[in-house]
Each structure stands twice: as C-alpha cells, then as structure tokens.
Specification:
The chain is built from 23 helices and 19 strands. It is an alpha/beta fold. It has three domains: 178 residues, Thiamin diphosphate (ThDP)-binding fold, Pyr/PP domains (Rossmann fold), CATH 3.40.50; 156 residues, Rossmann fold (3-Layer(aba) Sandwich); 183 residues, Rossmann fold (3-Layer(aba) Sandwich). Helix 2 packs parallel to helix 8 and helix 13 runs parallel beside helix 15. The longest helix is centred in the middle third of the chain and has 18 residues. It is globular, with a radius of gyration of 26 Å. It starts with a helix and ends in a 24-residue tail after the last strand.
C-alpha cells in the first residue's frame, strides 16, 4: 500500500470517528450521577451549556440572580441528600453564587457551585481577560472543597470528587471551576464515555463506637431531668422512624430546633417547644442529635441554661464539633442514622422511661404557655398584628400538613417559629445557622421543584426584598407557591423617624406598598389582605388553586420589635443622647 493511500485511509477513519466535547461530557457526567436539575443564571461562558443540558433532559431552572439560584440548590441538597447544582457565569456571577455556597457549607447542605471562568494563562498573568478572576482561590476558604478541571478527559473525575466532597461526612458546599475553553475541547467519544465516573456509596455510613454508645446511655440513665434537642442535621439524616422510636422509648421530652420541627409532630405529648425556656434552664442531661451548641442555643452556657449543672451528650458526624463551646461528657461520633439505631439496639427492651415528675413539669409548662398564647392568635384586628396573622397560618398548616413552609424575616421568622406547628419532617425551611435573610424565593422554588408539594412562603417585607424579583421565576415555571408578605412598612417597624432631615429613617420603606401588584405584573395572582379573615380566605384559595400567588398582608407599622428576639446582637452606642 502506498504512503498516499494509507494517509487517505487514516484521514477517512478519523473523519468517521465519533467525537464528543466538554459540553456533552459534563452533561453526561451529571446524568450518570442522577443530578438532573440545575439552578442557575445563563450568560457567558455557560449559555450554550444550559441549552444543551435542557435538550438532553436535564431540568434547567433559570433565575434572575445567582444568589437565589444558589440558595435553591442548597435547599435542594437538604431535601434530597444529593448535591444541589448551581450554574453561574464567571466573576460577578460566581461571586453572587458564592454567598449561597458559603451559606450551604455553614448549614451543612450538600451543594455544588459550577462556574465558568476565564482562561488560566490570562488570569495567572493578570492580562485583563473578560471577567478575569482567580475564582478557585477565592472559593476555597468558603466551602468544603474546590476543584478546577482543565481537560475534558478529567470532567468525570472532577464531578465525582465534587459529589463525594459535598455529601460525605458533614455535608457542605463544593466549588467546581470550568474555564471557558474546557467546554469546546474535543475528544474521542468512546474514550470520553470511559472517562466518566459513577460515584458509588458517596456517603457511607459511619458507625459509632460501641463504647461511645454505652457511655451515652450510662449518662442518660443517671438523668433526673433529661432533654433531647433535635437539630436540622437530624432532619437531613432522614432517620425519622428511629428518631421517633428513640424519643418515645426513652420517654424524654424533646426540643426541636426550627428546621427539625415535624420530625415528631409539634403537638406530640413529649414536645417541649412551648416550654423551651424551662427545659433549657432546668435540664440536667442534654442529648444533642444533629444540633450544634452555637448562638442559636446560647453556646450551651449563660443565663439561658440556668444554674443547674449540665451534662451534654452529642451525636454528630464531625468529631471536631465536640467540645466546641462546652465539655461534651459523652460524644457519639457517626452518621445520625447509625448512631440512633445503635442507641436503640443498646437500650434493649427494659429501658426505664424518663422520670414522670419531670415529664409532668414540662407538660404543665407547655400547656400553660399555649393557653396564654391562644387568645392572641384568635384576634381579627385591622390592621393586623403578627399574632393574628400567624394564628391564621397556623390553622392552615394544621389542615395542610403536607405543605412546605418557607419562613424568613426578623419578627416574621422569630414569631412564626414558635406559633406555627409542624406535623411532618422537612416541611419547615428557614434561614438556618447564619440567620441571613434572602433565602425565601430560592428555597420556595426548589421546594416546589424537588417535592412537587405546595409551598407557603411567609416573608417579612424586608426579607422579601432580597429575592423578590424571583416572583417572575415562580410565574414563569407556574409553580404552586403562595407568598405571604407581612408588610409593616419597614425593617422591624415602619414607624421610625429621621430627627435631623427629610430623608426617611434607614429602617422605613414606602408607606402602603402593594407587593401584590408585582405578582400580577407577571401573570400571577395578587391579593391585598387587611384582616386575618381576609388572609385566611386568600391563602386557602391560593393553596387550592396551585397558582403562583402573592398576598400583601398589611401589618400594623408599629407592630414588631428591634431584630425580633435577637435585638441584643445589635451593639448599643456607648454615648448617651443629650
């Protein structure tokens, strides 16, 4: 065979060889690992990737701002135990998504932020590329892990590492950096398919040591006033039946943190939610299950916890969490499902229930507090106060326990946590560990997408402002989301005055704002409610219809307090007013 003929046959074979590229390899890698929903904002250099992913059967939910898309991805991770995926453009888009990534890591939600980026050779020499930024270096301190993929053949490995990092051990956020040129890289399709990785057993069980289980039960046996605190880690674990069995077998009162509400119904006879102050102050042994002794629990010390000596048992997958604020006398390290199962098995069939006098004390205090609150929740005032409005929503959630409640704000969040009872696990989603506002619309959208359940988003007017433009996204995708805005014309209250000039006070908004008109502008249903009765009718109609709805609930501008229940976190001026 002549050299010319051989060369022609080689070229013909190359031409007939099936090829693939970075776009298709990334899509195939996501689908291989069951990641079939992407939350993001399109733009350079990832616009075509979004189009191609959609064409390949991946659901692409396009937002108006990357932070909201990132929040959606983070709560998708919490709800599904698979990493939620957020896709952003480079530099400013990446930075917008980074807030959500840090939020996911702090809250222990599995999430992967995927961002397009400028080319390394230009970034490293700082030659001024379009949206030039060393995104990997910026992301690293704010997430569990960060990876960059430079070659198409490494896309499979890169995504596999991101998935494992996001869900193994204590879950959290992971950053995956994809430079623009990666998407257009071409390689042999067969070799490309072989380079993909299906992640096996990404979050393996971590079994607690038998000695740790025995130690914890020995401490619990000696308790006269035991308490179990359930955190959102317990809700994430989806070990619902075993957690309920542990509480009921032990007979110990339990206190659910806000996102753990519903693991057992808030009306369960052992629920101490309405007696929080009493149980924290008087308990002598406290078992933490997926809860951290951070600021939300006053770091396990101070006047919140009273003067009675405390012994703490803590169940957590992260060993470094132990002794973070106070001494943990019985650390149990492992995944919550395995730890609770081991505790149940070791308790045997003859476990003695918690002392009856303690259970009775907690029950009496709970009933007393509920009775005190009841009249405040039944008023029909106009303009509404927080309690009258929340009393209505409390009843609606009781009648619709399958609905998902999203909640944020200052007073709106703090009061709703205590007023609205939950009946099923992972039905209450809120601001979590950081206490940041702006999660509302992202969470609401992801909750509707991931579960198919109706969503009731209860928002303060200030909190809504961080993500309010996503009402267009809700309308565009025709999601069953009902938003209730508690509108009191400002942050905390709408009555502050500027004593030295004509500008409004920093905490005051436009008087009489009509947020319901925003929803109407995008084809949704807008309602203005001025009494609890009107609010009840509007929310029920929205939940029955499944149509995107926004209810502007007019709250008395004078209602509310500084920062809700955490006003002490606002530093006070040392200078006295003259």
């Amino acid at each position: 065979m002549s050299a010319a003929v051989q060369s022609l046959e080689t070229k013909t074979a190359d031409a007939e060889q099936e090829l693939t590229d970075g776009f298709n390899l990334m899509i195939d890698a996501l689908k291989l690992n069951g990641l079939t929903t992407i939350y993001g904002v399109p733009g350079i250099p990832i616009t075509d990737f979004g189009r191609m992913a959609q064409a390949a059967g991946i659901r692409v939910i396009s937002f108006r701002h990357e932070q909201n898309a990132g929040n959606a991805a983070s709560i998708a991770g919490f709800l599904t135990k698979k990493p939620g995926v957020c896709l952003t453009v480079s530099a400013p888009g990446f930075l917008n998504g980074l807030t959500a990534l840090a939020h996911a890591t702090t809250n222990c939600f599995p999430m992967i932020l995927i961002s397009g980026s400028s080319e390394r050779e230009i970034v490293d020499l700082q030659q001024g590329d379009y949206e030039e930024m060393d995104q990997l270096a910026i992301a690293k301190p704010l997430c569990k892990a960060a990876f960059r993929v430079l070659h198409a053949a490494d896309i499979g490995i890169g995504l596999a590492r991101a998935i494992r990092a996001a869900v193994s051990g204590r879950p959290g956020g992971v950053y995956l950096d994809l430079p623009a040129k990666l998407f257009g890289q071409v390689m042999n399709a067969e070799a490309g398919a072989k380079s993909l990785v299906k992640v096996i057993d990404a979050a393996p069980a971590q079994i607690p040591a038998p000695s740790a289980v025995k130690r914890a039960l020995d401490v619990l046996k000696g308790a006269k006033r035991p308490l179990i605190i359930l955190g959102k880690g317990a809700a994430y674990a989806q070990a619902d039946d075993d957690i309920r069995a542990l509480v009921e077998k032990s007979g110990i009162p339990f206190l659910p943190m806000s996102m753990a509400k519903g693991l057992l119904p808030d009306l369960h006879p052992l629920c101490a939610g309405a007696a929080r102050s009493t149980v924290l102050k008087d308990a002598d042994v406290v078992m933490l299950i997926g809860a951290r002794l951070n600021w939300l629990l006053s770091h396990g010390k101070g006047k919140t916890w009273g003067t009675a000596p405390k012994k703490f048992i803590q169940i957590d997958i992260e060993p470094k969490e132990m002794d973070s604020n106070v001494e943990i006398v019985a650390p149990v390290v492992g995944d919550i499902g395995s730890c609770v199962s081991a505790l149940l098995a070791a308790m045997g069939s003859n476990w003695s229930a918690a002392p009856a006098d303690w259970v009775k004390t907690v029950s009496s205090k709970r009933e007393e507090n509920v009775a005190k609150m009841a009249p405040r929740l039944m008023n029909n005032n106009s303009p509404m106060d927080y309690h009258g409005a929340l009393g209505v929503l409390r009843t609606i959630i009781k009648e619709r326990p399958d609905a998902i409640l999203v909640n944020e704000g200052a007073n709106t969040l703090d009061l709703a946590r205590g007023v609205i009872d939950m009946y099923q696990p992972r039905k209450r989603l809120d601001v979590g560990t950081w206490g940041v506002m702006g999660i509302g619309m992202g969470y609401a959208i992801a909750a509707a997408i991931e579960t198919g359940k109706p969503v009731l988003a209860v928002e303060g007017d200030s909190a809504f402002g961080f993500s309010g433009m996503e009402v267009e996204t809700i309308c565009r995708y025709k999601l069953p989301v009902c938003i209730v805005i508690f509108n009191n014309d400002g942050i905390y209250r709408g009555t502050d005055l500027n004593s030295v000039g004509s500008d409004p006070a920093p905490t005051v908004f436009v008087k009489g704002s009509r947020y319901d008109k925003m929803m109407e502008a995008f084809g949704g249903v807008g309602v203005h409610a001025t009494t609890p009765d009107e609010l009840k009718r509007a929310v029920n109609a929205a939940m029955d219809s499944g149509k995107p709805t926004l209810i502007n609930a007019a709250i008395d501008p004078a209602a509310g307090s500084e920062s809700g229940r955490i006003g002490n976190l606002n530093p006070q001026s040392a200078l006295k007013k003259k």
